[in-house]
Amino acid sequence: MSKYNYAIVKTITAYINAEDDNDLLNLYSEGIVDEELYDATENADYTFYRINSNNEKQVINFKENKDD
Questions:
Q1: Distance CA 27, CA 41 (A)
Q2: What is the mean pLDDT of each run of 10 residues along the chain (68 residues)?
Q3: DSSP annotation string for 21-45
Q4: Residues in contact with 57: Cβ distance below 8 Å, sequence separation at least 6, in sequence order
Q5: pTM above 0.70, yes or no
Q6: What is the Cα–Cα distance from 48 to 53, expressed in whole angstroms?
Q7: What pLDDT, on the 0 to 100 scale, is given for residue 64?
Q8: 10: CB partners within 8 A, 6+ apart
Q9: Which residues contact 46 (CB under 8 A, 6 or more apart)?
Q10: Is 49 within 8 Å of 57 (Cβ atoms)?
C-alpha cells in the first residue's frame, strides 16, 4: 500500500477598495489588509492535494464523492 503526503491550502478572499497599487501597498503596510482577511475567514475555501513519492500533486475533490 502506498503512503501519500497531503497538503491543504486555505484561500481567503477579501475585497479591498484602494485608489491604486500604492494605496493598496499602504493599506498592507498599515495592517488593514490583514484585518480584512481575518474578518473574511468565513469565506475561506480549502484545496486538498495528495502528493505521491515522485512529488506529483493531485487535487482531491471531496465534493464529487459527497452525496448531496
A1: 19
A2: 86 93 96 91 89 89 60
A3: HHHHHHHHHTTHHHHHHHHTGGG-E
A4: 7, 49, 50, 51
A5: no
A6: 17
A7: 56
A8: 44, 45, 46
A9: 8, 9, 10, 11
A10: yes
